[in-house]
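Can't paste images in this forum, so I'm doing it all in text. The chain is below; anyone willing to post the predicted C-alpha cells underneath?
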Amino acid sequence: MVSQEGPATLDRCFEKMKMEGVVISEWKDIPVELLMKILNLVDDRTVIIASGVCSGWRDAISFGLTRLSLSWCKKNLNSLVLSLAPKLVKLQTLVLRQDNPQLEDNAVEAIANHCHELQDLDLSKSLKLTDHSLYSVARGCTNLTKLNLSGCTSFSDTALAYLTRFCKKLRVLNLCGCVEAVSDNALQAIGENCNEMQSLNLGWCENISDDGVMSLAYGCPDLRTLDLCGCVLITDESVVALANKCVHLRSLGLYYCRNITDRAMYSLAQSGVKNKHEMWRSVKKGKFDEEGLRSLNISQCTYLTPSAVQAVCDTFPALHTCSGRHSLVMSGCLNLTSVHCACILQAHRTHTAYPHPAH
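Text version of the structure:
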C-alpha cells in the first residue's frame, strides 16, 4: 500500500515543474529525479517492465534503485538478471529466491561484477549454482552483511571458507540445508574471518560436530541467533562453549539434537546467573526481551530432565511456556510437561490468593 506521503511528494514535484515552465509530453521528458521518486511507489515488476520500454526509467534504475526483488519472475530469470546487472550499480538489497531453480553462475557473476554496493543478497533455493558463484560473490561483493544461501546444495566447504575471507562484514548468514558446504572447516573459517556474525542458521547441516560449533563460539562472541536443528553430531560441549563465550545469545535452536543432556541446560542457566546484574537492570526497565535467552527450541531432546530445563526457564524471564507465547519449545519431550514459566506460576499464585467465591 502506498503511504499518503508518496502522492503528496509527487504533487509537490509536479507543482514545482509547472512553476518552472517544464512541459511533459513524453516519458522521456520526466526528470530522472522525479522518476526516482516514482520508483518508491510502484512494485519491482512494474519498474522492470517500464525500464524495458523507456530510457528514462533505465536511467532512474541506474541512479537510484537500491532494493530489488525478482522472486516474482517465474521464467527467464537468468536472462533478466544478466540484462539488468550492469544498470544496478547502486543496488544494496537483491532478492533472487526461487521456487523453480533458474539462476545460473553467469548471472551471479554479473551481479558481482557490477553491484559492488550490495549489502543483502538472497540466493536461497538456487540449486543450479556451483562454487563459481561463491568465488564471484567473494571477489565482487565484499560489503555484504546479510547472505541467504539456504537450500543451495551444490556448494563445497572450500568455496564457503573462501567466501568468508573476503566477506568479513557478514552479520547474518543462512546456510540451512547446505549439507556439503557446512563442515567443521567451514565453521572454523567463519569463526576466524567473520567476527561480527550475529545470526547464523545451520539447520540440518548434519556433518558438523562440536569442533566446528566451538570454533564459532570462540570466534563470534557477538552471536545472537544460532539454529542448530538437526545437527545430530553435536553434544553438550557445543552448548557449554556457546554459553560461556556468546554472552549476547538470544535464540538457540537445538531441535533433534538428541545428544544434548542436562549439562548443557545447566551451563546455559549458569551463564545467565553470571550476567545477572545486566539482565535484571534491563528487567527493571521493562525490557524483558532484550537480555538473555528469549527463544530456545529443545524439541526431541529426550535426555533432558525437568529440573535442568526448569533451571533455564527460571533464569531467563523471556522464556515462556504459556499459551500463545511459546518461546521455550519442548515438542516430543513428554517428560518435561511439568516445566513452566514464571507467567504460569504467577497466575497460579493469583488464583490461590483470590479463591473463587463459591469456595
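The mean pLDDT is 86. The first strand starts at residue 67 and ends at 69.
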